[in-house]
Amino acid sequence: MNTPIRTSAPGSMMLFGEHAVLHSHHALVCALNRRIHVSLMPREDREIHITSSLGRCMVMLDSIEPKEPFSFVLSAIARRKADLQTGFDLTVQSEFTHKAGLGSSAAVTVATTATLDLWLDGEAKEEHVLRESIAIIQEVQGLGSGADAAASVYGGILLYRAKPLKVTKLGAVHPVTLVYSGSKKPTADVVRIVEAAREKHPETYDRIYQLMGHSAEEAAAAIEREDWQSVGGLMNINQGLMDAIGVCDGKMAGIVYALRKDPGIMGAKISGSGLGDCVIGLGRARNEAFSYDQLPTAMASEGLVIGEQTPGSQEQTPATA
Length: 321
Description:
This protein is an alpha+beta fold. The chain has two domains: 5-171 and 299-318, 2-Layer Sandwich (Ribosomal Protein S5, domain 2), CATH 3.30.230.10; 176-295, Alpha-Beta Plaits (2-Layer Sandwich), CATH 3.30.70. The protein contains eight helices and 13 strands. The chain has helices spanning 71-78, 104-121, 126-141, 147-154, 187-198, 202-224, 228-244, 250-261, and strands at 5-16, 27-42, 47-52, 55-60, 88-94, 157-161, 166-169, 176-180, 268-271, 278-282, 294-295, 305-306, 317-318. The radius of gyration is 20 Å and the shape is globular. The chain starts with a strand and ends with a strand.
């Protein structure tokens, strides 16, 4: 084989239901227009070479062990170890930073899994890629709803439930303003903090999660009828629920309220697990005095794609179901 196998998958951001989705409630998640590209070229020996902006790594086919900063990629490879007859060169190219919580881990997991499926099976089926990616993410992190992986596979805005798994792609996207707070606490750490608080008030937290899930369902219905003002209002309600479970600090609150003052923003809330990371505003901020750094990104309808592509390329083929 002289031509590398290529796939790419988009990053993602959570819109509604960040913590509720871990308790079998619905969430809303969307794909972004920043992607991770993976290419694979088979080798004739038993060496696996990984090259990315995070560095380089070489492992032997017989001793694949996940390790930082390549845990997700190596875990995806390890799951196919029994099917590997030769080594390969794997190149990862990213269109966005992994420091902000834009679903980079899920995107690289989805793209790597799909690339291996294409090479070893001759096809990459979306549902199989999603289920494998969720298993990998949970294996590496110890938890994970899989919502970000679903956005990387299917693209667009998704109404998502983890257990039982259900993915519904909605029919529209909308301009957003995304602001990075300047710091990010690992999702697993935030979840542990929230769950420790939940143990003291389980019924109250469960009702909050129910409200989060219900508002995600309401927002999905509003998106389907393109009632974005209602989506913005529900986003503000969800921010109050995020505050109630203790994941909004003073800096995040400041960004939320600065966005809400902007005439171009219909609603704003934390996007992600909280205690840092990003705030999303529905609409485009128009106030020139807005002092926070915006991330240059947008919602995207396209998910996993296969074929000849380079970072920023628009000529891509959607993955087959």
